[in-house]
Amino acid sequence: MLAFFRVGILGFGGGPSSIPLVHQETVKKYMWMSEEEFGDTLALANTMPGPIATKMAGYIGYRVGGLLGCLLALFSTIAPTALLMILLLQLLQVYKDVPWVQHMSASVVPVVAVMLAVLTWEFIKKTGETLGWVKGLLLILGSLVFIEVLKIHPAFLILFLIILVFVPFRKKGEGV
Fold this sequence. Notes:
With 176 residues, the chain is mainly α. Helix content is 82%, strand content 0%. The protein has 7 helices and no strands. The chain has helices at residues 2-10, 15-29, 35-47, 52-95, 99-131, 133-149, 154-166. Helix 1 (2-10) packs antiparallel against helix 2, helix 2 (15-29) crosses helix 5 and helix 3 (35-47) packs across helix 7. The chain is globular, with a radius of gyration of 20 Å.
């Protein structure tokens, strides 16, 4: 799977920085899933332990090509990273004191931040379109408070929201 090979090669900075690349390949380029399905996959992948890029690759690969697709997607995601890590870290170790190498390493951080900001904005827009802006912004702000202020792990918040969806609510005045 060339899509996950590109993610494995270009996903510099770890799993979270590769999410926009996975999104680009699976939703926009190959159209293997919709925005909503990608959002659901991402949310579920965040609740499970382990690297997010491999979890998403495994699931999407399985969805597109069955067991063989899963294995190919996993290999395509992991192999480039492992090989490049060995090669580049050896090279970086040799040239770590050269100023342009130090600047190059520091320059990657803002690029990844922009990529994550763009993906975040796309999810915010999609939330506003599907849930409505008031409800969407309340959920976003509430999540921010739970995660950043109260230090509740995102998996618990996602689990709570999943349970909340399945709890039947009755309108006032409805019979038993």
